[in-house]
Amino acid sequence: MELLIVFLVVLAVVAVIGAPLRNRARGLDPDAAARAELADLEAAKEAKYHEIRDAELDQRTGKLSEQDHRQLDAELRAEAIVLLKRIDAVRGRLEHAPAATESAAPPPAVG
After folding, report:
1. Which secondary structure element, helix H or strand E, spans residue 49, and what is its range?
2. Is the pLDDT of residue 101 over 50?
3. Considering its fold, how many domains does the chain have in total?
4. What residues make up the domain containing 11?
5. CA–CA separation, 61 vs 3, rounded Å?
6. Is 68 domain-assigned?
7. Distance between CA 55 and CA 107 in Å, rounded?
8. Domain assignment present for 105
9. Residue 59 included in any domain
10. Secondary structure (3-state) at 81
């Protein structure tokens, strides 16, 4: 259970530290903002997977009862599904976004 708390704290720290970077990226380039959001979501997904594995270990070692594990596992997996859907949505935005070169002005003529 302590590992679960540690992962949640680490995730919160990443979110707080990453916020200024995300805000700066949003102001510069929409694709950069989406890539930053995707990186945050990927980190959150990995943290959620660690929480699921930790809960399984806690159940196997007797720290969680079977009933508590089922409840916690269902909650963690539901949260993971939400993260996966958000990741898919951001990837979809990135795939369908016009390339930066398409919107850029043509280079000036030399001569």
Report:
1. helix 30-60
2. no
3. 1
4. 2-95
5. 14
6. yes
7. 56
8. no
9. yes
10. helix
**Residue 21 domain flag:** yes
Looking at every residue in the chain, the average pLDDT score rounds to: 82
Chain-centroid distance of CA 74 in Å reads 19
Other CB atoms within 10 A of residue 87 CB? 16
Token pair of 50 as six digits: 């660690």
Cβ neighbourhood burial of 90 (10 Å; 0-12, 13-18, 19+): buried
List Cα–Cα distances, 50 to 2, 20, 44, in angstroms: 13, 26, 10
Q: Is the pTM higher than 0.70?
A: no
More confident residue, 85 or 31: 85
For residue 73, the tally of other CB atoms under 10 A from its CB is: 16
Structure tokens at 85: 């859907």
Under 8 Å between Cβ of 9 and 27: no
Say how far apart CA 60 and CA 48 lie, in whole Å.
19
Reading the block at residue 101, the tokens are 């070169």
